[in-house]
Amino acid sequence: MTTEAQLEAQFADTIEAKDRIEPRDWMPEAYRKTLIRQVAQHAHSEIIGMQPEGNWITRAPSLRRKAILLAKVQDEAGHGLYLYSAAETLGASRNELTEKLIAGKQKYSSIFNYPTLSYTDVGTIGWLVDGAAICNQVPLCRTSFGPYGRAMIRVCKEESFHQRQGYELLMTMMRGTDEQREMVQESVNRFWWPALMMFGPPDDDSPNTAQSMEWGIKTHTNDELRQKFVDMSIPQAEALGVTFPDENLKWNEERGHYDFSTPDWDEFWSVVKGNGPCNDQRIAHRKRAWDEGAWVREAALAFAEQSAEAAAPAQTGSAPGQTGSSPATTTEETAK
Ligand code: BYC
Fold it and tell me: Considering the chain, what percentage of its residues have pLDDT values greater than 70?
């Protein structure tokens, strides 16, 4: 018989060898709990993240831009679903997690509590927000929990497409009028600091990093990834012809990195605690969509139950398709 100590040793060996932990494997309860916390927050971010850009679908400046934006927002829904599925393998259902989000018991990324004031913000979100997301998520492709890492591989492919889409939109505007160039700069000024905050608090104020690194859930610290993002964004801004709102941005020869100012961490914590410009609006919208979609979930469940019954002839004594009423008919009846 395998003892608890042997299971713990097997788990430690798997982490040490940088192999994957799979849902069927034994894992410490604290590992499961922290993964559910992170994966759920990540899933919620993808779903809530549909709102700021979704706000511009009806007002996109051309049919082509509208089609691109629709597809991008739809991709985010898909990312949310892969992630809820990954959380489900840990024993946390999508219903339960969504209820917690709506009740304010789980978080989502601070970035989505800022408004999108002009269509230009669609480009800036693609470039900077999806850019920051890629920087954070590429290392997560090698995270220790199998379903999370595999979801990340697919998500990252789509995110890099999103980032190029945003950059191309801004490039087009920069080739336009002075007014359009000013709109791009104004939008970049508003999103730069919130994008840096996406990486989480500084390492010395990040309670979860040390343990998550030990477990191979995170492979880089918040500050390491923030620095990487700053270093990669500056040449992109130069090519675009915009600046970032930080007079201390300077190449540091000795460190081999750009120096930058400290983000306003009071603002970050205030947004995380629910006091950002759009927190109430985002949750109210999510709650409305969840409540209004209840009948769809009920109907889908009833349909699945009816289909399962119809496909189980041994229990009913009749062959498939001979249950008297089609699943579609009974679903309609149940939905009433
Ligand atoms: N916002 O100990 P720490 C997207 C919380 S969506 C809010 O460093 P950890 C996209 C943190 O949860 C991309 N809260 O935590 C979608 C913790 O509180 P709890 C979303 C934050 O987990 C649509 C406390 O602060 N990406 O790309 O080690 C359109 C202390 O933090 C934030 C992910 O979710 C924040 N920014 O590290 C476009 C990536 N930062 O939970 C784009 C996956 C920290 O103890 N997640 N907190 O109550 C991660 O990599 C990590 O969870 C974090 C935080 C780096 C975010």
Answer: 93
On whether residue 322 sits in a domain, the answer given is no
Q: At 246, which CATH number?
A: 1.20.1260.10
36 assigned to some structural domain = yes
The stretches of the chain forming alpha helices (DSSP H) are 4-16, 29-48, 50-54, 63-88, 94-102, 120-124, 130-137, 146-174, 178-197, 209-214, 222-240, 265-270, 279-292, 294-310, 313-316, 327-335
Please count the structural domains in the chain: 1
pLDDT digits (tens, 9 = 90+) for 20-40: 999 999 999 999 999 999 999
The reply to whether 323 falls in a domain is no
Identify the residues whose C-beta falls under 6 Å from ligand 1: 37-38, 41-42, 45-46, 49, 76, 107, 109-110, 125, 129-130, 133, 136, 197-201, 206-209, 212, 218, 222, 272
Query: Residue 229: which domain range?
Result: 2-270
* Residue 311 belongs to a domain: no
Task: Kindly tell me if the per-residue pLDDT of 93 is higher than 80.
Answer: yes
- The residue whose C-alpha atom lies closest to atom 8 belonging to ligand 1 is 206
Evaluate if pTM is beyond 0.70: yes
What average pLDDT is seen over the chain? 93
- Name the residue at shortest CA distance from atom 27 of ligand 1: 133
